[in-house]
Every structure is written in C-alpha cells, then in structure tokens.
Amino acid sequence: MFDSVRLEHKLGKEEFKEIEAQLRNELLDAQREMQERGTHSIMILINGADGAGKGEVLNRLYEWLDPRYLETIGIDIRDKTNNDWPKEWYYWRGVPAKGRVAAVLGSWYHLMLRERALGHLNREGFLGSVAVAREHETMLGHEGVRVLKLWLHLNPDEAERRYRKARGKSGFGHPLVQEWADVPAAHNKKRLHEAAKEVAQLVSPDAVPWVVVPAADARYRDVAVGRALLALMRATFAAAEPKAPAEATPGAGVLSPVATRPLPRPSIVGAIDLTKTVDPKDYKHRLREDQRRIFELTSSEAFRKRGLVCVFEGNDAAGKGGCIRRLRQALDPRDFRVHAVAAPSDEELARPYLWRFWRNIPRRGRTAVFDRSWYGRVLVERVEGFASVADWTRAYGEINAFERQLTRNGYIVLKFWLAISPEEQLRRFEERADTPYKQFKITDEDWRNREKWDLYEEAVTDMVDRTSTPLAPWTLVPAVDKRYARVTVLNTVADRLELALS
User: Fold this and answer.
1) Distance CA 150, CA 47 (A)
2) Coiled coil where (predicted)?
3) What are 187-218's pLDDT values in tens digits?
4) Which of 186, 330, 408, 473 is 20 to 30 A from 491, alpha carbon to alpha carbon?
5) What is the pTM of this model?
6) Strands, DSSP E only, in 78-176?
7) Residue 199 backbone zone (phi > 0: left; psi -120 to 50: alpha; other: beta)
C-alpha cells in the first residue's frame, strides 16, 4: 500500500479537466441520492503530513459537492481549552445527520499518531488505541454513519520541504493546515510517517479500510479522493438494496417444541429485598450528612479534573425524581444539569443513538444527572420493538465502550436502578391519578407498560448482567421505602466520590 504510492502518480491538465467534469456530475448525483434517501451519512477523515494538501482537498470537496449538505469538523488537539471535555465528545458533537457529509480535520487518529511519533506510546498502547478507534467506527457503521479514512501520502522529506516553503511564502493563497507542529524534528516526522503506515496496514475483516492517496500531484490527489468518496456512496446504496430471499428447504432449521421451550431464568431485580427501610428518626441526619459530603467533594480542587455522571433508571413511579431532588440539594446549581430523557426528536433520530447523550456530557469539574438514559436502547426500545434484535443486542457492547471512554477520561459514572413491586406501583399510580398536582406524572403509556412487567424485568436482568462493570457498576436500590432509596443513593454517590478523589 505504501510501496506503490512511492511511484510517480501524475495527471495532466487536459486529462484532469475531462475527468473532473464527469466526476463532479457523478458526485452531485450520488450526494443528491444520499440526501433523498436519508438513511446514511458520511464522515471523511482527512489525514496526512503538513504540506500534503489537506486544506486543498477540503476546498476541492466544497467546490465539487453541494455545500448545503457538507460541513467541516476541525479539532485542534493542541488547544488547551479542548481538554474540558473527553476528546470523544468533540467528534460525537459533530456527527452529521443522515443525508449529509462531514469532513474531519484532526481526526481520532491524530492523537495516537502524534504520541507514537513522539515516542510517548509504545506498540502495545498504540494497538490498544487503534482497537478503540475501530470499535468506534464499527458502532458508527451500525448506526448508518459511513467513515472514509484518507491518508494523503507524501515522502517525509518532501512534506517537510513543502511545509517550510509554504510557511515562508508571504501571501500564501491556500492556508496550510498545520496539525503536526508539535512533532518538530525531522526524525519525528519520519516516525509519524511510519506510524501512519503501521495503522493503515493493521487490517481485519470488520475494520474500515484506509485509503492511501498519493499527494505529490494535486490533480491526481483530488481525483483519487473524489473517486474514493463516490465509491463509498455507491457501495452504501448497493448494501441498502433489499436482497432476494434464499430458497427455503422444507424442514430445514425447524426445531421441536422441546428444543424451543425457554428454560426458567431467575430475575436479578426480582431478587432485590424490597422490604428494606430506614428509621424515620435517622433519615434526615443521614441525608444531610451525605449531602454535605457530596458538596464538599464536588467543590474540591481534586474534582476540577474529574466529572460526575449519574444515571437513574427504574420502574415507573419508583421515585427517581425524589432521589434526584435530594441530590440536587447537595450540588452547586451552577455546576450541574439534570437531563430528563424523553423520546428522541427528529434531529436526534437522524444520528446515532448515543449522539444525544454524548453532547450532554458535562465539562470536567461538573455533574450531569440523567433521568432515563442511553439504557432506553436495551429497555423500552427492546421491549416495545423500536429497535431490532440486532440493534439492542450490539448496544450492550457499545454502551460499555461509551462508559469506558468516560471513565478513561476521568469521569465517575454512577448508575442506579430503583425497584418497586407491581403492587406498590399500582398504589402509586392510583395516588397520582387521584391527586391533581401529581396527575402530570401518570400517562396512558405508564398503564400500558404495566402489562409488560415480565418483559421489562427480563430486559433489566440482561442489562445488569451485561453492563455492570467494575468501572461503572449498577447499584440496585430497593425503593418501596422512599426514604431508604434516597439515603442509599446519596450515600453511594458520596462513597464513590470519596474513593475516586482520594
């Protein structure tokens, strides 16, 4: 791959004009079809040495495509203000809606290549970073986001020569995209080239392949990029076409009733001791003590480099709102936000399901509380059939990866499931229906969900089994006694903060 690009790749001016006219028409037709279909979006990762023409390629894309459906995501890793959020937050924030194309400068490969070139990342760490990137790209692919990974190749010496020439020329017509200024020495630039070669050659059957583009000749480079984009668009359309069903063989795949009968399975939430209570005389003292601890810990110097994410899930009417209000009382209102999660909007449906949660991750030193969360994919979307079996099955791994990225970036993730019995839920429903100022809390959907209690219990068991990890464990909270639930939640938050900040 990197051997062939060393050969001369040139395109004459007249030949370029002839190819360009047809390529532009085909790109516009494909872009229009993608926008009309509204099922996929594309992220183009434009990578390469400074001097390889990254900015010129971007400008060419804006010339050849309809700019109304093209956007740029530019991340400057050197900008210290970009450390307020996890680095993944910046990429998730810019994920394009379906039907659109986004060009990315400073992609998620930038940091790992930089660290590898500077010798700060050994091969084991480098391979781990590549694996995380692939995991992210696979998830995007499942959610309808196609990734085109470009490496604009120039010989390191030639790239350095062009870089110096561009920097020294006054009135430079196309500002140079300078991404590797902190990899200054010539030998480090060569190590960057070798790291890029290494990452492009690390292929696997499910990986998004790299497209290595010879960049010495601008005309050849631009046509190669345009053709790579066109090929991806057409492959996306072809993959979306319905396939004819295979010829069925009589009796094939038919299992007997004995083989298909489900085995009895214990319920995790069914095993929670719902009889637990707290002495009303101790309740206020315990609550205030833990609120004091939480306030002091989240106001500390140590917390400024961390972040807190609290997730509240549970049976309808289990008391999530009451627990959240007691947590609010322990936090500086300038430094936290509660996100009440409802059905996704059209804007959110046009992007991967984790997009709307990533964009609400707090900056470091602050807290986000999610009243319902990303676990809707494996709960309500699973039970109600809003997500296919394939979608909610793969979501467990995607959610674990999401939370792993948060914890790796210094965030403390706490997850609470508040449990009550069907009988207690019915009592609370009836109380809400009979109390005017509580009637907004009860809906027809709440009553319908009661009929699927067993299905939700099975979904919760799978959720806890598959997503309770050492870094982000579930806390199962008996919530028939509301006081007990509140002190359990606040005590857990205070203890986890204390442990993380010690």
Assistant:
1) 6
2) none
3) 677 788 788 888 877 655 556 888 989 999 99
4) 408
5) 0.84
6) 101-105, 145-153
7) alpha
